[in-house]
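wait is this the right file?? whatever heres the structure
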């Protein structure tokens, strides 16, 4: 079984190893920045539980850069960093994250808007079309999901821990809907080599910001103003670039294909916006249109129940008075009156009868196959089974 909890300071070395597996802007492979993100996340979980920190007046800072090096964007929005723990070993094997608002008025989130230009020659009797991109500033402050990484040894696991890592973010949104925006954004990573190089960046961004992709990545951890200061505001014709670059725009890396497919199955859509660094697609969805969020609710825990007596399964979570968040995927029996869990699941979550818990029903567990017949069915029954 796998447990999702808020990231803790002791997770930083493992998070650093995970961050070095892929190049995510929102999960930098720098120990100091990761420690800052963990601390910020812990503070946000405590606020979620109603914990008032000493020397806190409830205000947020809005400086351009903080003393810990995080950008103003990082400081302004509620930020939740999850760690996935393998219950049997206690080891951290994955992570994901959620930001309540990505930017906002005066602090835009930057992307490239893809368009098409058509030209026609009456004298020649034919025309051409060209793909163009233009820098786009989004100040609506959407909720952002991202930073999902799972240890390679656990990919393809029959329990599907990667799905839980992804879905727990929507579970939290559903439980605290008022904290989050009307739209959810997922910035998918474009093709990046194992050395951290992006062909799209070299062909496009580096022409205007003369640094390597990893260095531009590091700049983003401190301040993103340089994007609008150095990238042109005019339309740029991508058809002037090599065909392999043009064909990579809006495409995700091989490691990100399962995550994109999962989000699209949930209702996320690509609407022609890509990342200005790696050319990866931006997917989005209206928050209240997602069934997983609409299905999420709170329930009162009842007495434990045998696992084989449960007819449903999904995510169940707790958030205690000190801001300790815990969630698992488990079987349960949900009624209008309460929710009943197997004893093992209740123990992992620290649930006792009468507690309030969060629940997101998902697929019901597969029924146990009936005992194989020792005699052949009658002919009529065989014919009915083929109908």
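ok assuming it is, sequence goes like this
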């Amino acid at each position: 079984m796998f447990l999702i909890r808020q990231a803790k300071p002791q997770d930083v070395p493992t998070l650093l190893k995970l961050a070095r597996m892929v190049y995510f802007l929102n999960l930098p492979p720098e120990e100091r920045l990761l420690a800052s993100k963990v601390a910020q996340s812990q503070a946000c979980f405590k606020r979620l539980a109603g914990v008032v920190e000493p020397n806190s007046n409830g205000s947020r800072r809005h400086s351009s850069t903080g003393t810990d090096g995080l950008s103003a964007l990082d400081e302004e929005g509620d930020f939740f960093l999850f760690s996935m723990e393998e219950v049997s070993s206690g080891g951290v094997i994955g992570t994901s994250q959620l930001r309540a608002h990505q930017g906002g008025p005066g602090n835009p989130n930057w992307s490239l808007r893809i368009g098409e230009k058509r030209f026609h020659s009456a004298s020649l009797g034919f025309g051409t079309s060209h793909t163009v991109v233009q820098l786009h500033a989004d100040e609506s402050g959407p909720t952002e999901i991202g930073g999902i990484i799972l240890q390679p040894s656990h990919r393809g696991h029959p329990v599907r821990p990667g799905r839980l890592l992804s879905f727990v973010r929507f579970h939290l949104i559903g439980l605290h809907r008022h904290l989050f925006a009307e739209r959810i954004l997922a910035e998918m990573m474009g093709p990046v080599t194992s050395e951290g190089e992006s062909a799209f960046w070299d062909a496009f961004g580096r022409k205007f910001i003369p640094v390597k992709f990893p260095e531009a990545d590091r700049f983003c951890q401190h301040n993103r103003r340089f994007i609008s200061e150095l990238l042109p505001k005019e339309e740029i014709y991508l058809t002037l670039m090599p065909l392999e670059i043009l064909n990579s725009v809006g495409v995700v890396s091989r490691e990100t294909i399962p995550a994109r497919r999962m989000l699209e199955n949930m209702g996320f859509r690509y609407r022609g916006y890509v990342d200005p660094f790696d050319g990866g697609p931006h997917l989005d969805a209206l928050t209240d249109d997602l069934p997983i969020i609409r299905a999420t609710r709170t329930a009162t825990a009842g007495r434990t129940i045998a696992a084989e007596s449960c007819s449903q399964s999904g995510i169940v979570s707790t958030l205690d008075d000190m801001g300790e968040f815990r969630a698992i995927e488990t079987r349960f029996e949900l009624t209008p009156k309460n929710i009943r869990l197997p004893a093992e699941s209740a123990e992992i979550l620290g649930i006792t009868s009468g507690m309030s818990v969060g629940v997101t029903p998902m697929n019901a567990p597969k029924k146990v196959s009936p005992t194989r017949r020792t005699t052949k069915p009658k002919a009529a029954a065989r014919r009915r089974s083929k109908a």
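Residues 57-75, 364-387 have pLDDT under 50 and may be disordered. so i think its the right one actually
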